[in-house]
Amino acid sequence: MTDSALPASLARARERLSQALKEAGRAKDSAHLLAVSKTKPPAMIRQAWEHGQRAFGENYLQEALEKQAELADLTDIEWHFIGPLQSNKTRAVAEHFDWMHSVDRLKIAARLSEQRPDHLAPLNLCLQVNISREDSKSGVMPEEAEALAMEIAKLPNVRLRGLMAIPAPAATREAQREPLAALRELLAALQQALPQAPLDTLSMGMSDDLEAAVLEGATLVRLGTAIFGARDTR
Ligand SMILES: *Cc1c(COP(=O)(O)O)cnc(C)c1O
């Protein structure tokens, strides 16, 4: 199943990102688009790839592995795991992904490092931060992020690249910006604490808050609905 609306949605998403960067006074290529393809069929991923999209985000491991197998011919595709992960499922992520955005404890990072195959580059990691301090959300609490980052930075086969968050929904752009600004400040603090780590990534901004996220320094925006359309509820 391909989707006749997809090329236009993808073009609109790119335009939205470049407009947001311009309004924020930022360089054109200072933030990139991660196409979140969870629940969407492999044919739509292939179609987006044919229109130049390379980075894709998936939330559900089994579903992702099946799609990757079907899309194995797309050589320069980049896979990002962005969902919650149980520690007994780390091996498949270590073997089949380029990025993992949702690390919130040392055990997961240590297993990913240990299980990363030697022939692959280190796995890029982001710490997921529970920036709105919600009981229901995964993610490390902001005040615990630095200690965790220090430990992860010592692991040999992963590379700590930055922070990821899914803030609580907010009604206005100003309210959206608050937690996103907090994540930006937290990354700046980590950069101070770990000057030798390649901490260049703020994974934040989704279909509803992309503009606010770009204003607050997002470098990787994760768009699902805006590119692939609404998802069926699972
Ligand atoms: C689903 C999801 C997205 C994309 O959300 P949209 O609102 O559809 O753009 C981004 N990040 C994560 C972690 C997600 O689970």
UniProtKB/TrEMBL annotation:
| InterPro entries in alphabetical order | Ala_racemase_N, PLP-binding_barrel, PyrdxlP_homeostasis
SUPFAM superfamilies the record matches: PLP-binding barrel
Cofactor(s) the record lists: pyridoxal 5'-phosphate
What's a Pfam family this protein contains?
Ala_racemase_N
Give all residue intervals belonging to the Alanine racemase N-terminal domain: 26-231
Say which domain of life the source belongs to: Bacteria
Which Gene3D superfamilies does its entry note?
Alanine racemase
Tell me yes or no: is Cytoplasm among this UniProt entry's keywords: no
Carrying N6-(pyridoxal phosphate)lysine, the residues are 38
* Keywords from the named record: Pyridoxal phosphate
Select a single GO molecular function from the record's annotations and give it: pyridoxal phosphate binding
Against CDD domains, the record matches this protein to: PLPDE_III_Yggs_like (cd06824)
Signal peptide boundaries: none
Q: Which PANTHER family match?
A: PROLINE SYNTHETASE CO-TRANSCRIBED BACTERIAL HOMOLOG PROTEIN (PTHR10146), PYRIDOXAL PHOSPHATE HOMEOSTASIS PROTEIN (PTHR10146:SF14)
Q: Which family does it belong to?
A: Belongs to the pyridoxal phosphate-binding protein YggS/PROSC family.
Q: What does this protein do?
A: Pyridoxal 5'-phosphate (PLP)-binding protein, which is involved in PLP homeostasis.
HAMAP family per the UniProt record, alphabetical: PLP_homeostasis (MF_02087)
This protein is called Pyridoxal phosphate homeostasis protein
Q: Which organism is it from?
A: Vreelandella songnenensis
The root-end lineage is: Bacteria, Pseudomonadati, Pseudomonadota, Gammaproteobacteria, Oceanospirillales
